[in-house]
Amino acid sequence: MHDIIATPELFGATLVITPWKIIGYVGVLLFAGRWFVQLWASRRSRKVVMPRLFWYMSITGSLMLLSYFIFGKNDSVGIMSNLFPFMIASYNLYLDFTHQAEQEVGTG
User: Fold this and answer.
1) What's the pTM?
2) How many angstroms separate the Cα of 1 from the Cα of each of 5, 7, 67, 72?
3) Which of 7, 10, 12, 30 is 20 to 30 A distant from 99 in Cα terms?
4) Residues of the chain with pLDDT under 70
5) How many whole angstroms separate alpha carbon 59 and alpha carbon 82?
6) What was the pLDDT predicted at 55?
């Protein structure tokens, strides 16, 4: 996983691309992209909405970034900065499922 896949140049700097970096890049894209999902859902509803996809993207992005920082880079700052959002997103998703189940029991 640490083998170099490519070394493209960007603005005069050489980037070293490994499979772990690809996992990290995808994790960052998911983690950042979740805000576009939230923005789209809120605009559509005309009120603040946190769709379930937001939490899925948060968890997936955090797990991918945690994997990158644990196995690819071994960086404790990156680990700590992604462990907390993972736990919060997981708890919020749990609350969302619990709330939905309570609503279904109450209407059923």
Assistant:
1) 0.81
2) 10, 15, 12, 8
3) 30
4) 108
5) 10
6) 94
State the greatest distance between any 2 C-alpha atoms of the chain, in Å, as a whole number.
63
Q: What is the CA radius of gyration of the chain?
A: 18
Phi, psi for residue 15 in degrees, rounded to 5: -95, 140
Q: What contacts 48, CB < 8 A, 6 or more positions away?
A: 42
Tell me what pLDDT residue 108 has: 61
**46 close to 95: Cβ distance less than 8 angstroms:** no
CB 72, CB 20: distance < 8 Å: yes
Backbone angles phi, psi at 75, to 5 degrees: -120, 110
* Cα separation, 72 vs 64, whole angstroms: 11
Q: Residue 6 — φ and ψ, nearest 5°?
A: -155, 160
